[in-house]
Write a structure and sequence with these properties.
This protein has helices at residues 36-41, 45-57, 76-91, 106-111, 147-159, 166-174, 195-209, 224-236, 264-272, 289-301, 329-332, 338-349, 353-363, and strands at 2-6, 19-23, 32-33, 69-70, 94-98, 122-130, 133-142, 180-183, 215-219, 240-244, 255-259, 277-281, 317-320, 326-328. The protein is an alpha/beta fold. It folds into 2 domains: 2-30 and 74-286, TIM Barrel; 38-70 and 291-363, no CATH class.
Length: 382
């Protein structure tokens, strides 16, 4: 049974719980691909011209957006504190955080070395190539004794898709008692293959592998309409729904799970065995999604003193050099192209309070509510 509450409608809803969970957030260990730029450039003459100008300014003569990537701004500890502080300061509850970098577990491994975060689950967002799309699975709470082995097997599949290996991998993960497997943002056409093609491939994936999943994600950075389709999809496949923020910047996750579990494994059993999930939407979710995404872009681009990779966004964005070695853009450019500085400057101007208020009014937010499936005879969602 899934329950969804909205903090702006029911501000006291958390009082009957002891903890809240933040699932699905990223740190500087996530490599966020730039290959989507290729697809956009095919549709925009202006972008093609801009990229051509960039290539001419770059010491490396060939742009390779398939291998280029940017990294989120927060360190593992910074990401943990952003999520924990929202839960403890806003809700007055104990906070549990599961960090899920793309195909990487370095953040939770490092956090486990600190006394205050030694119990953080070892989690990741696993990229699963399937037909023409990529499936993202939240793999939460790998066993510490075998986490590196599992990571290696998952990475091997990601880099060299051999679907005959996928059932064994998923079954092995599914059989780990305290592990949670979540289908992240299932309705998002991540590879830009077109919604019909994406949905067709997703259906093929679910027909074969739904039995190995524990829940579908209601995403904090996905729209109301898309998340409603996730609720309907979960209903049609008899699946649970859980929260997932997908935080990449400084804004904490907009969707949380409320629980009386005192440990992450206990929460996993609430989902897996007891089929109970209480989701809480935080006030930022009702703000304009486009404005929130703009804030994330500014978070990624803003100077950060003391950042391990360097203070500028060009220190935290990477591209192959002429020899094929990955380097920060700051090492490849004599200076950032003027058009990029102009665009980022315009984005930063939009952070001014009067302009933000105007944009919020124009783009709007939403105070909708999700339609949940009816309850079955046993009280569970059908």
């Amino acid at each position: 049974m899934a329950t969804i509450d909205y903090l702006w409608k029911t501000p006291g809803v958390a009082k009957t719980y002891t903890s809240a969970l933040s699932l699905h957030g990223h740190t500087l260990f996530s490599k966020e691909s730039l290959d989507f730029i290729i697809a956009q450039a095919k549709q925009s003459a202006v972008l093609r011209w801009a990229l051509g100008t960039q290539v001419k300014r770059c010491k490396n003569p060939k742009a390779d957006f398939a291998r280029a990537y940017w990294t989120p701004p927060l360190t593992p500890r910074g990401a943990y504190e952003v999520e924990r502080n929202q839960i403890e300061n806003r809700l007055g509850l104990s906070g549990m955080v599961s960090i899920t970098d793309h195909d990487n577990i370095d953040a939770p491994i490092r956090l486990r070395l600190l006394p205050q975060t030694r119990h953080i689950p070892i989690s990741l967002e696993w990229t699963v190539p399937f037909e023409s799309i990529k499936i993202h699975l939240g793999i939460h709470n790998l066993p510490s004794s075998s986490a590196r082995r599992w990571l290696s097997e998952m990475q091997e599949y990601t880099h060299e898709m051999k679907e005959e290996r996928l059932p064994g991998l998923l079954q092995g993960l599914y059989e780990i008692k305290d592990l949670l497997i979540v289908l992240n943002h299932p309705m998002w056409d991540l590879c830009a293959v077109g919604q019909p093609s994406h949905l067709a491939a997703l259906e093929h994936f679910l027909r074969r592998y739904n039995r190995f999943l524990h829940a579908f994600e209601l995403g904090g950075l996905r729209s109301w309409s898309e998340n409603q389709r996730v609720v309907d999809l979960a209903n049609s496949w008899n699946q649970m729904i859980v929260s997932g923020g997908d935080r990449h910047g400084f804004e904490p996750n907009a969707v949380l799970n409320l629980t009386n579990a005192s440990t992450f494994p206990e929460f996993v059993q609430e989902i897996r065995e007891h089929k109970k999930s209480h989701l809480l939407l935080m006030p930022q979710y009702q703000q304009s999604l486009r404005l929130r995404l703009l804030h994330t872009v500014n978070d990624v681009a803003r100077p950060i003193s003391g950042h391990p990779f360097g203070p500028g966004w060009e220190d935290r964005t990477f591209h192959p050099d002429a020899a094929g070695e990955i380097q920060p853009l700051s090492q490849l450019w004599e200076k950032p192209p003027a058009f990029i500085k102009t665009i980022l400057g315009a984005f930063q101007m939009l952070e001014a309070r009067p302009i933000k208020a105007m944009i919020q009014y124009i783009w709007g937010g939403s105070k909708n509510a999700f339609r949940l499936p009816p309850l079955g005879e046993d009280g569970g969602a059908v």
